[in-house]
Specification:
The protein is of the alpha/beta class and 521 residues long. It contains 25 helices and eight strands. Helix 5 packs antiparallel against helix 6.
């Protein structure tokens, strides 16, 4: 495999870093929005999952994906604007995603599989192009699952010589558990594979199990302590000096235990998240779905023909024996077990299945890009992924980020202007680079509620702006009771599933736009 091929595959993914598509609010509000407050001290919208009273998210995933790049920007003194704040975390996520490419090549080399086919399939998959350049916790979970599966599949577990793979496996499993408590559902079958692979040499069997368990437990304690320090539920001291920051925790580890003291309690964020998600009334607030949504809708949407032809993939591998059958059964069980457990929850979103991309590519890549692949299937794969990558990367709610970029550059903060976002996804406040503006997210409130909010805002001597889809703005302009406004800027394309175009003619005019409107005061 040439370096040009690997570079080209990575370049395709890199180009999507600047795509304005807005997939889901969690992309911003569970990572860069939180870290912008911690690193830059800006006033932003902190989601309920990071409430110190009962946190359901560990600070580690947003710190990894957004805290590190934001801290580098702060240290280097880089002037901040919307473009830099948007792309810096995405570039870091992209660099982290290359680890998955390495994992695929490692598995391919170990079992003499077609590594070029795996990289081609992985790099042209639309979930990789979009999610693997975004700061979702699901993305980090997918990366950590790929690492854990690679360690499990490429380690000689019956080798009696000492090795540290078990410790690394325990640590990455724990980090994955703190990232999203669902990771064990994806990895569970591989636990039995590792146990089976170690069983031929009983001393090594117990040593492997012990090393994984000890690494997991120690990592769990360390991560729980760091979360507790972050959320302020635990106060530590070393040598009489309080440890007020997570960064002060690591140097103190080298000090004698007798010099340590503590006050407070540990917060276990993955257990809080698990407890929240098993409550039916909690999930009802986020939307309830059929138990078959993952199997019949979400998985086909994410993986397309790679998922639909999964039975064919298993049949080919079973008789070709390119992959040992124990490995084939373990990887396929990872897919089926995850689908089973995640389908038990009544709230189901496509991105929850993102970690399945690694086992599916390992098993099915040669069907689309291998030496014996079918050109028709390759074409279907490329068209399917190109269409969805362009839609979610460049059209879906794409005006929100572009409008914030325009506001950050062109609208003066003098007089503390008021911004209303109505019938759009939540606007990430940090993309205004800390500017003194009042941002109101009105979600999908009725027009009467919008009028009431505007009536209050227009009484103040400030500039008032409304950002809303063009289809909605068109109706507002014809209401006699609506305040006079002028169009400042229009962004095309912008697709809102909440306010889709009523017709093709409507879509080509205003149905696929997002508008910034200014009210006369």
């Amino acid at each position: 495999m040439s370096y040009k091929f690997l570079f080209g595959a990575a370049l395709v993914r890199f180009l999507f870093i600047v795509s304005p598509g807005y997939i889901h609010p969690d992309e911003f509000f569970q990572s860069p929005e939180v870290m912008a407050h911690d690193v830059f001290g800006w006033k932003v919208l902190i989601p309920w999952e990071f409430s110190p009273s009962n946190p359901c998210r560990s600070f580690l995933p947003p710190w990894i994906f957004s805290g590190i790049p934001f801290s580098l920007l702060e240290v280097l003194g880089v002037p901040l604007n919307t473009a830099i704040l948007l792309t810096a975390p995405r570039i870091f996520v992209f660099l982290c995603s290359l680890i998955v490419d390495f994992c695929l090549l490692r598995v391919a080399k170990t079992y003499k599989l077609d590594g070029s086919a795996m990289i081609a399939c992985f790099s042209t998959s639309w979930p990789v192009l979009i999610f693997f350049t975004r700061t979702f916790s699901n993305t980090l979970e997918a990366m950590l699952l790929a690492i854990c599966l690679t360690i499990s599949l490429t380690t000689d577990w019956i080798n009696p010589k000492p090795h540290t793979q078990g410790s690394w496996l325990g640590m990455f499993l724990c980090l994955g558990f703190f990232t999203r408590f669902t990771l064990p559902f994806f990895f569970l079958p591989m636990v039995f594979y590792v146990a089976y692979a170690s069983a031929d040499y009983w001393p090594n069997f117990w040593r492997n199990g012990f090393s994984v368990a000890i690494a997991f437990i120690l990592s769990y304690v360390a991560m729980a302590i760091m979360d507790s320090l972050y959320f302020g539920t635990l106060r530590l001291s070393c040598g009489g000096h309080p440890i007020s920051r997570v960064s002060e925790f690591f140097p103190a580890i080298l000090k004698p235990l007798s010099s340590w003291g503590y006050h407070g309690y540990l917060v276990l964020t993955p257990m809080n998240a698990l407890h929240y998600n098993i409550q039916h009334h909690n999930l009802a607030e986020h939307g309830l779905h059929s138990r078959a949504t993952h199997i019949l809708a979400n998985a086909p949407l994410l993986f397309g023909p790679l998922y639909i032809l999964f039975p064919v993939v298993l049949y080919r591998h079973w008789y070709s024996k390119a992959l040992p059958r124990t490995h084939l059964m373990s990887l396929s069980a990872c897919v089926l077990t995850a689908l089973f457990f995640l389908s038990m929850a009544p709230h189901q979103e496509p991105r929850f299945l993102l970690p399945l991309i690694f086992p599916l590519v390992v098993l099915g890549a040669d069907l689309f890009f291998g030496k014996k692949s079918y050109r028709g299937l390759t074409l279907i794969w490329l068209l399917f992924n190109a269409a969805l990558a362009l839609f979610y990367g460049g059209v879906h709610q794409a005006g929100v980020v572009r409008s914030l970029n325009y506001i950050d550059k062109r609208i003066s903060t003098q007089g503390n202007p008021i911004l209303f976002y109505w019938r759009t996804y939540m606007p990430p406040r940090h993309l205004l680079s800390g500017k003194d503006m009042v941002v109101h997210d009105l979600k999908g409130l009725p027009v009467e509620a919008l009028l009431a909010e505007l009536e209050v805002a227009l009484k103040e001597e400030r500039e008032v702006y409304l950002v809303t889809p063009g289809s909605v703005a068109h109706h507002l302009e014809h209401r006699p009771d609506f305040p006079t406004m002028r169009e400042v800027k229009s962004f095309f394309p912008h697709f809102s599933g909440e306010d889709p175009p009523h017709s093709l003619h409507h879509a080509t005019e205003e149905g696929l736009t997002l508008k910034i409107l200014q009210f006369e005061t």
